[in-house]
Amino acid sequence: MITVITRFAVPTTINASQMQAGFTQVAPVFRNVPGLVRKHFLLSPDGRTAGGVYLWEEEEAARSFMQQRVAPMIRDKFKVEPTIEFYHSPVIVENSTDGQTSRKPCQI
Predict the structure, then answer these.
(1) How would DSSP label each residue in 26-68?
(2) What are the domain boundaries of the chain?
(3) What is the pLDDT at residue 98?
(4) C-alpha 14 chain-centroid distance
(5) Residue 104 pLDDT > 90, yes or no?
(6) Neighbour-count burial of 48, counting CB atoms closer than 10 A to its CB (0-12 exposed, 13-18 middle, 19+ buried)
(7) What are the pLDDT digits (tens) for 34-58?
(8) How far is CA 101 from CA 5, 56, 77, 94, in A?
(9) Cys bridge to 4: 25, 43, 54, 105, which one at CB 3.0-4.6 A?
């Protein structure tokens, strides 16, 4: 398994509520992507950094999707260059098996 972490600066013209709405709007893009197991959207406590954590079955699919779809999407939408880091995930601990994918958003 491969874990990918993306981060990017949130423009000062966008607040945390707008980011939450944007995440909700774009989430369907990540459904049924071949090789993508899971994606978590990230927003820092101060709302100035956003990103994602992705769990992939294979590195080739991860690199291709991140370079061809995710990085251009971030550049186009936010006019910033994202950082993208790739990690091998040799062990994964799964505590929740209820299939829940959405939780109440935290207050920032």
Answers:
(1) HGGGGTT-TTEEEEEEEE-TTSSEEEEEEEES-HHHHHHHIII
(2) 2-88
(3) 56
(4) 18
(5) no
(6) middle
(7) 999 999 999 999 999 999 999 999 9
(8) 18, 16, 25, 13
(9) 54
Fold of 2-88: Alpha-Beta Plaits (3.30.70)
φ, ψ (nearest 5 deg) of residue 88: -80, 140
Q: How many CA atoms lie within 13 A of 86 on its CB side?
A: 14
Angle at the Cα of 36 from the Cα atoms of 34 and 42, rounded to 5 degrees: 145
Q: Which two tokens stand for residue 98?
A: 């209820």
3-state secondary structure of 92: coil
- Whole-number Cα distances in Å, 58 to 34, 40, 43, 74: 10, 18, 26, 22
Q: Tokens representing 38?
A: 């899971």
The tokens for 13 are: 């013209």
